[in-house]
C-alpha cells in the first residue's frame, strides 16, 4: 500500500481509498479516492505543500493537484499560520480569506473567524449561505440585510468588491422591507412601495422609520380589503408604542393605492 493510503469500505462493500498525513503532531484526513494511485498522489501533493515554502496561494491557483483545492488552502494556512481550520480559511493581516474556489476569495473581519471556522459557506444560484441547526441562513443576514434585498439598491459594497464582507465595506441603504432611499434635490428621502399584482408607491417620507411604518399601514389596509398575502412586518425599535401609533395614524397613503383597494371591495 502506498504511503499515507489505507483501504476503506462503503456500507455496500465497495472498496475505496483514503489518504491522510501527520503534520505538527496533527493527523489530517486528505479525502477519499476511487483508486490507490489517486490517494497516493494526494498524499504527495500534501507533503509538497507542507514542506515547500515557495508554494503560495497564488501559485496554488495554477497547480495541477489531485488533492482538492479546499484541502490545499487548509494545509497552507496550517503551514504558514500554525492554526488548523476544517474550512478553506487563510489568515491575513487584520482579516481572513475564505476560498470557495481559486477565483472566489471572500474576505471577512477577524471577529467572524470563530463562526466561519465552524460553519461551511455554500453557494447556490449565486447566493451564499450556511447551514445552522438544520436551517439555511444567508451570510448577508449577519449584517442585518433582509432576504431578497438587492445589491446596489438596498446595500452596497464600498470598495466595489462584492466578495469583501468586512463590516466597513458593507453599507446598508435600506433597512426596512418595502423602503427605498431616493434623492430629491440632493436630499435623501424614503419611498415606500408595496407589491400586490405589481408595485404600488405608497408615498415618500422624510425618514426611513416613517416609510417603514407606512409600509405596515399599507399592508394592514390590504388585509382589511381581503388580500390574503403574508406581508412582512417592519419593526421599529426606536419608537415607543405611543410614538408608533401617533405616526401610524397621521401618515398619508397615496390616493391611487386607496382607490385600488376600493375596487377590490366593490
Description:
The chain is an alpha+beta fold and 266 residues long. It has helices spanning 36-51, 57-60, 69-81, 113-118, 208-224, 241-250, 255-265; strands at residues 5-9, 15-23, 26-33, 89-91, 95-101, 104-109, 121-124, 127-132, 135-138, 155-157, 170-172, 179-184, 187-195, 199-205. Strand 1 (5-9) and strand 2 (15-23) form a beta hairpin. The protein is elongated. The model has no long low-confidence stretch (mean pLDDT 93).
Shape: elongated
Helix content: 25-40%
- The SS-based structural class is alpha+beta
Question: Distance N terminus to C terminus?
Answer: 82 Å
Overall number of domains: 3
Which spans of ≥5 residues are poorly predicted at pLDDT below 50?
none
CA-based gyration radius: 26 Å
Q: What profile does the largest beta sheet have?
A: 3 strands, antiparallel
Walk across the major sheet and give the strand order: 1-2-3
Mean pLDDT rating: 93
How many strand units? 14
- H and E order: EEEHHHEEEHEEEEEEEEHHH
Task: Tell me the strand percentage band.
Answer: 25-35%
- Structure annotation, total helices: 7
Task: State the main characteristics.
266 residues; 29% helix; 7 helices; 30% strand; alpha+beta
Concise overview:
This protein is α+β, with helices and mostly antiparallel strands and 266 residues long. The protein has helices at 36-51, 57-60, 69-81, 113-118, 208-224, 241-250, 255-265, and strands at residues 5-9, 15-23, 26-33, 89-91, 95-101, 104-109, 121-124, 127-132, 135-138, 155-157, 170-172, 179-184, 187-195, 199-205.
Amino acid at each position: 500500500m502506498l504511503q499515507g493510503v489505507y483501504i476503506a469500505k462503503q456500507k455496500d462493500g465497495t472498496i475505496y481509498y483514503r489518504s491522510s498525513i501527520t503534520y505538527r503532531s496533527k493527523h489530517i484526513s486528505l479525502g477519499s479516492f476511487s483508486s490507490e494511485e489517486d490517494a497516493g498522489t494526494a498524499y504527495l501533493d500534501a507533503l509538497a505543500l507542507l514542506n515547500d515554502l515557495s508554494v503560495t496561494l497564488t501559485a496554488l491557483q495554477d497547480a495541477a493537484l489531485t488533492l482538492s483545492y479546499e484541502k490545499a488552502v487548509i494545509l497552507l494556512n496550517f503551514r504558514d499560520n500554525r492554526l488548523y481550520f476544517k474550512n478553506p480559511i487563510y489568515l491575513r493581516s487584520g482579516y481572513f480569506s475564505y476560498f470557495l474556489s481559486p477565483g472566489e476569495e471572500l474576505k471577512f473581519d477577524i471577529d467572524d473567524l470563530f463562526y466561519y471556522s465552524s460553519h461551511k459557506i455554500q453557494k447556490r444560484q449565486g447566493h451564499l449561505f450556511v447551514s445552522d441547526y438544520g436551517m439555511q441562513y444567508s451570510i448577508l443576514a449577519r449584517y442585518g440585510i433582509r432576504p431578497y434585498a438587492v445589491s446596489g439598491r438596498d446595500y452596497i459594497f464600498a470598495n466595489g468588491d462584492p466578495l469583501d464582507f468586512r463590516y466597513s465595506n458593507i453599507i446598508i441603504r435600506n433597512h426596512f422591507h418595502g423602503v427605498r432611499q431616493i434623492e430629491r434635490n440632493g436630499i435623501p428621502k424614503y419611498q415606500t412601495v408595496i407589491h400586490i399584482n405589481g408595485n404600488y408607491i405608497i408615498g415618500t417620507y422624510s425618514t426611513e422609520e416613517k416609510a417603514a411604518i407606512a409600509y405596515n399601514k399599507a399592508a394592514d389596509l390590504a388585509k382589511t380589503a381581503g388580500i390574503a398575502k403574508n406581508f412582512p412586518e417592519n419593526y421599529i425599535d426606536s419608537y415607543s408604542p405611543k410614538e408608533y401609533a401617533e405616526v401610524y395614524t397621521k401618515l398619508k397613503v397615496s390616493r391611487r393605492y386607496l382607490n385600488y383597494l376600493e375596487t377590490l371591495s366593490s
